[in-house]
Specification:
The complex is a heterodimer of chains A (440) and B (240). Chain A contains 15 helices and 10 strands. By secondary structure, chain A is α+β, with helices and mostly antiparallel strands. In chain A, helix 2 packs across helix 13, helix 11 packs parallel to helix 14 and helix 13 runs antiparallel to helix 14. Helices cover 33% and strands 26% of the residues of chain B. Chain B contains 8 helices and 11 strands. In chain B, helix 5 crosses helix 6 and helix 6 runs parallel beside helix 7. The radius of gyration of chain B is 18 Å and the shape is globular. Classes of the chains: A alpha+beta (440), B alpha/beta (240). Chains A and B meet through helix 1, helix 12, helix 13 and helix 15 of A and helix 1, helix 2 and helix 4 of B.
């Protein structure tokens, strides 16, 4: 009977095209607005590295001003480390499987082809960054520990930059010029865009592109390449030193530190190690505040940093309320539509249709309207996401509708239409046929 | 075939209580062609609705084909109506955007017949009413008489044993009315029981038996006695 009911539904929709169009538009607007905000929210709050997010930890140490408010949670501690703490942890024999110390820098890339130079954000990091974050390589691979220690002029570049500079060819062994320095390319990364960009959530936005150039940390300091991103200090810098040298020796926080811990036992051991490290530093006259060390898994880290803001949640709730308003409007339109076909319902009842059959027939029509509303909602959501993309820089990774989102949009629309249609469909199935047949 | 005993029907609103049928007793045998006459407001349509299981009586007992139908739930009544009763209406009641074939197959859909069975039955019925070559037409492409023939084909498609006709020629000119009446007589001769409500004494005279309903009560009339000579309804039928 489903195909029969579907055929009747299409005929019924053709019979009242304006009313049908109004319902489809009402549902489409509600679904479109909701799916726009939901898609952004869903991608914002997604797990950027699901297969490893439980074993990757961001590290926090509290070296801050003793006069600042007391610490109650990881949210109250600076999200970055000083250079000296990062280097101390990196070089120590810790229980971590892997560690990476890093910061964001910047340089001018000068193409050999004579094309105009352009600015690129550089990630200065240690060699285990790539293995720890499962970065996929198109050509070559990461540099090794020796390159880190030797402060080697090597670089890993991204696919996009490789396409731009070398036409997509295997550029391993070739050179890239950053400012006045040449770096030998040892690897080319394939497309890689964890969303949110969890390993450095405050540099250029949590949803910015991943960097296209990676170089060894100590080599970046040698160049020197200053930090690009948030830099927070609570004590004055030593003005007798060059700026970067002053930063390296300061209590300013501007570097990120991640560790890979394979098990809860390893995580507990690392936490103990951090506490001991902090105690040592206190004994040496640093870390004037109470002992506050934290390690946070990827998703905890996103929460600590408020990657999904309260305004996103408010927008999501508002768009859901708008969807409810659209559904309520659809209830009224469906009432008008179904009560208008009371004569046909009465005839079908006379021909032997039970109330259940009438209910099912009209529910299929409601579902069909829901599908059309969902499809128009997908179109409206697509337009909404394009608007988000053009209005908000850095959201380009959040504005695509994947198959799951498309399915969700249509399913939600069908569910909304059925919710809107249950009462009208029930009412029409309860109509007394006798009185309506006479007036046909 | 049809047996009503002391059947009553009362419509109530907050202010008004209307007795449409009062202690109506009626027995129709299988294969009979019964004409039901009576003035407007006498209860003919209510009788027809109860006979066709579209309404339930407020009191009394109604047996159709040996079954006390007042005990059936909606699903059972619908199935009973689908299998045993065919309806013909004054205004045809064809669904305008369905083809003739789709209109005729409506009751068969609820019978659960296969596509092959439905197509065969629809073809037979449209052939019977002389419209077999127009299965794909829409009702609006037919004359009133042709539309009523389609409605008859629809009523007969499921081979019901009991046909209820409510003023089947009321919207037709005399020539078309005669054709439809001839068709009903032919259907009755094939064994189908017909109960026909009509205002037309000439049509009533062609039935096997005439029943007159007045003030909600039924009585047999001698054949050939015109409804025109019956007394006007009293106001007792409506009580405030």
């Amino acid at each position: 009977m489903f195909s029969y009911y579907l055929r009747l539904a299409l005929a019924s929709m053709r019979r009242t095209p304006v009313l049908t169009a109004l319902m489809v538009v009402a549902l489409g607007l509600g679904i479109g607005a909701f799916m726009t905000t939901f898609t952004v929210y869903y991608l914002m709050s997604g797990d950027p590295i699901p297969h490893k997010s439980a074993v990757l930890f961001a590290v926090q140490l509290d070296n801050w001003d003793p006069n600042s408010p007391p610490t109650e949670s990881a949210k109250d501690v600076q999200p970055q480390l000083t250079w000296q703490d990062g280097q101390n942890l990196l070089r120590a024999d810790t229980p971590a499987l892997r560690q990476a110390h890093m910061y964001a820098a910047g340089a001018i890339v000068v193409p050999e082809s004579g094309e105009p130079p352009f600015d690129e954000t550089i990630r200065a990091t240690s060699h285990q960054f790539f293995a720890m974050f499962d970065v996929p390589f198109l050509y070559g691979g990461p540099w090794d520990l020796r390159a880190d220690d030797d402060r080697a002029s090597v670089a890993v570049i991204g696919r996009e930059l490789n396409d731009k500079l070398f036409g997509g060819e295997n550029s391993v062994g070739r050179r890239i010029r950053l400012d006045d320095n040449y770096f030998e390319i040892v690897g080319v990364i394939d497309d890689w865009q964890p969303t949110p960009r969890f390993y450095h959530v405050d540099a250029g936005g949590s949803f910015a592109d991943t960097e296209q150039v990676f170089i060894p940390l100590l080599r970046a300091v040698d160049v020197p390449m200053g930090p690009r991103g948030n830099t927070n200090c609570w004590a004055p810098l030593d003005e007798s030193l060059p700026t970067l040298q002053a930063f390296l020796q300061s209590e300013c926080v501007w570097t990120q530190f991640w560790v890979e811990l394979e098990s809860p036992e390893q995580a507990a051991a690392y936490q103990d190690y951090l506490d001991n490290y902090a105690r040592e530093q206190k004994a040496a006259g640093r870390f004037p505040r109470p002992l506050n060390t934290f390690i946070s898994k990827v998703n905890e880290w996103l929460d600590v940093n408020g990657v999904v803001g309260d305004d996103n949640r408010v927008q999501l709730r508002l768009s859901f309320l708008f969807l409810l308003v659209c559904v309520l409007n659809t209830v009224g339109l469906l009432m008008a539509k179904f009560l208008g076909k009371g004569g046909e319902v009465a005839l079908r009842r006379a021909m032997g249709a039970s109330r259940g059959a009438v209910f099912a027939q009209n529910l299929v029509e409601v579902g069909a309207i829901g599908v059309l509303g969902g499809l128009s909602g997908v179109g409206i959501a697509w337009l909404g996401l394009r608007a988000v993309e053009s209005l908000y820089r850095g959201y380009q990774h959040l504005v695509h509708l994947d198959p799951l989102m498309l399915t969700t949009a249509v399913s939600l629309s069908v569910a909304a239409a059925i919710a809107a249609g249950l009462y009208p469909v029930w009412r029409v199935s309860r109509l007394a046929p006798a009185g309506l047949l006479k007036t046909q | 075939m049809l047996k009503m005993s002391d059947v009553g029907k009362v419509y109530r609103t907050e202010l008004v209580e209307t007795h449409a049928l009062r202690d109506l007793n009626l027995h129709v045998d299988e294969g009979e062609f019964v004409a039901v006459t009576g003035p407007s407001g006498s209860g003919k349509t209510t009788f027809l609705n109860i006979a066709g299981l579209l309404e339930s009586p407020s009191s009394g007992r109604y047996e159709l084909d040996g079954t006390d139908v007042s005990r059936l739930n909606d699903r059972q009544r619908s199935r009973f109506r689908n299998e045993k009763v065919g309806f013909i209406f004054q205004s045809f009641n064809l669904i305008p955007d369905l083809s003739l074939a789709d209109n005729v197959e409506v009751p068969l859909r609820y019978r659960g017949w296969s596509g092959v069975e439905r197509r065969r039955a629809v073809g037979e019925m449209l052939d019977l009413v002389g419209l077999g070559s127009r299965q794909g037409y829409l009702p609006s492409q037919l004359s009133g008489g042709q539309q009523q023939r389609v409605a008859i084909a629809r009523a007969l498609a499921g081979k019901p044993r009991f046909l209820l006709a409510d003023e089947p020629t009321g919207n037709l000119d005399s020539e078309m009315a005669a054709q439809v009446m001839a068709l009903l007589e032919e259907i009755n001769r094939s064994g189908t029981t017909i109960v026909m409500v009509t205002h037309d004494p000439d049509l009533a005279a062609r039935a096997d038996r005439n029943i007159h309903i007045l003030d909600g009560r039924a009585s047999d009339l001698p054949l050939g006695l015109s409804a025109k000579v019956m007394p006007l309804p009293t106001r007792e039928a409506a009580r405030v």
